[in-house]
Amino acid sequence: MEIKVLGPGCPKCHETEKLVREVVAEKGVDARVVKVSDFQEIARMGVFSTPAVAVDGVVKCVGKVPAKAEIAAWING
Question: Is 61 a catalytic residue?
Answer without folding.
Answer: no
